[in-house]
Design goal:
The complex is a heterodimer.
Chain A lengths: L2 E8 L2 E8 L4 H9 L17 E4 L2 E4 L12 E3 L12 H8 L9 H14 L5 H7 L10 H13 L5
Parallel strand pairs in A: 1-5
Antiparallel strand pairs in A: 1-2, 3-4, 3-5
Chain B lengths: L2 E13 L7 E9 L5 E4 L9 H13 L6 E4 L17 H28 L6 E3 L4 E4 L2 E7 H12 L4 E8 L17 E13 L5 E11 L6 H20 L31 E6 L21 H13 L10 H10 L10
Helix pairs in contact in B: 1-2, 2-3, 4-5
Classes of the chains: A alpha+beta, B alpha+beta.
Chain lengths: 158, 340
């Protein structure tokens, strides 16, 4: 099968890869770029742990054809921290014990970031809505919601 | 259509570990020349926090800072044998094994320190900050790092320890049927409040109040995480989850996470938890295990709350809207019970 060249921005950096037709963005990120932060959960769009942001909007990378991100900007959890400093959301997740097994955490953080980027002071209901596509099998939603609330409270306008 | 409120309660008595041919776990602890310690286990941490808890237990027993201990888990090729992470046995069984291994390693460490300080090992103590000193004379001190270096390069000693904790098999007495399947029991009581819609059969959780007696909580935040999440796994079992909704008929089974029902962030309700700490005599620092028992009282409490709300007794899990509706229909309408 012929491969298609694909260029896009990955966490602010230009990347160029060759993909087979039908390759999804999750596979492209993990196997071709080596960014292991989006996780493979169900591969069917039901769990949310593969969530990434495309041009600032939350998407399920397992259901996104890699070729559709040509020329666009893809943000993953890998791009969230600034050097050695955790992003305020990551800090809040740690401070609020919002991870147990941690498998849903990358998707939860991306869903939370997508929310706070467009609504810096969300209500509890807004947060519940924003993470409703993400499954936490440890059922730790309460501390995840609290972490996002805490991050929005202490968050700078950036 | 009416939404009926109901309240139900359940108490449980939960045995820690299992009794199938004996229940052992092993641990090995050794120091590196840097003065840091490694705990080797085959036990798996699936997110319950066993790595954190065994790290705390090891550091506390050795008398060194928790940062100086690294726990290496889940390699059954190279680690010592463990039965596994199930039956709420991790903290109790593995914790005890780690404690035994750390105690033996501490003995060697103190001997090695005694040789360096030219005193009797019995006169030495650790300060928990990485130093070993003569009791009553804190200035006569040596760091655990220097002890580890001396043991490795001068004395030719391995600062290490082996630990096993075994609860032996308890056989059934053929005459009386008596046995002791567990040495340690945790306890819990949970009150669930639900709202049942008599038109749709849907059950909504309104709130939960619970008390858990689980020995000493070695890491209170991890215990809380387990209790909060575990209670919702119980709700999930009581109301939503099943791979075969018409068992034994396999049809209509869920095929993915969209069809397999689980609680989401919008389903959770307030849950007030009281943790009662009554140290277990045979637990590491008095700990039992807050594992599976987090979920156990929830199921009967929810079933009782549904009975209290609409008067139907459903004994088949999960308690789906269909079952609730059929039962309400069979008895000719909702019959709310007295609220206590």
């Amino acid at each position: 099968m012929s491969k298609t060249p694909l260029q896009f921005r990955h966490n602010g950096r230009d990347v160029a890869i060759f993909v087979d037709g039908g390759t999804n963005l999750l596979v492209a990120l993990r196997e071709l770029i080596g960014d292991m932060t989006p996780k493979f959960g169900c591969g069917q769009g039901g769990c949310g742990t593969c969530s990434v942001m495309i041009d600032g909007e939350i998407h399920l990378s397992c259901l996104t054809l890699a070729e559709t991100v040509a020329g666009r900007s893809v943000e993953t959890l890998d791009g969230m921290k600034q050097g050695p400093n955790l992003h305020p959301l990551q800090r809040a997740f740690a401070d609020n014990f919002a991870a147990q097994c941690g498998y849903c955490t990358p998707g939860m953080l991306m869903a939370a970031k997508a929310l706070l980027d467009r609504n810096p002071s969300p209500s509890r209901a807004d947060i519940v809505e924003a993470i409703s596509g993400n499954i936490c099998r440890c059922t730790g939603y309460e501390s995840i919601i609290n972490a996002i609330l805490a991050a929005s409270g202490g968050r700078a306008s950036a | 259509m009416t939404r009926h409120r109901g309240r139900g309660m359940a108490s449980i008595n939960y045995p820690i570990g299992m009794n199938l041919g004996g229940d052992p776990s092993q641990a090995l602890v050794h120091s590196n020349p840097s003065g840091k310690f490694t705990v080797a286990l085959s036990s798996i941490d699936l997110g319950q926090g066993m790595k954190s808890v065994t790290r705390q237990i090891c550091a506390e027993t050795l008398g060194v800072p928790v940062e100086d201990v690294y726990v290496d888990t889940a390699d059954s090729d190279t680690g010592p044998h463990c039965m596994g992470s199930f039956a709420s046995r991790g903290t109790h069984r593995v914790g005890n094994a780690v404690m035994a291994a750390a105690r033996e390693a501490r003995g060697v460490m103190m001997e090695a320190a005694a040789e360096e300080l030219e005193v009797n090992a019995a006169d030495l103590d650790t300060d928990g900050r990485g130093n070993i000193h003569v009791k009553g004379a804190p200035h006569r001190s040596i760091s655990t790092k220097d002890v580890a270096i001396a043991a490795q390069f001068k004395q030719g000693k391995t600062i290490s320890g082996r630990g096993i904790f075994l609860v032996p098999l308890s056989n059934v007495d053929p005459e009386t049927g008596e046995m002791s399947p567990a040495t340690c029991y945790a306890h819990a009581c949970l009150v669930a409040e639900v709202e049942v819609d008599d038109e749709t059969g849907e059950v909504d959780m309104v709130r939960m109040d619970s008390a858990y007696e689980l020995g000493r909580a070695l890491n209170p935040r991890l215990v809380e995480q387990q209790l909060v999440g575990g209670a919702w796994m119980g709700i999930s079992h009581a109301l939503y989850e099943t791979p075969e909704p018409y068992y034994p008929d396999p049809s209509h089974g869920p095929r993915d996470f969209v069809e397999y029902l689980m609680p989401g962030p919008g389903d959770i309700c307030p849950h007030d938890i009281a943790v009662l700490e009554r140290p277990a005599p045979d637990g590491p620092f008095g700990a039992k295990g807050p594992g599976e028992m987090c979920a156990n009282p929830v199921l009967p409490a929810v079933a009782n709350a549904i009975f209290n709300a609409v008067g139907v007794r459903i004994d088949d899990l999960p308690i789906t809207p269909e079952k609730v509706l059929r039962a309400i229909k069979a008895q000719g309408g909702a019959r709310p019970q007295a609220r206590r």
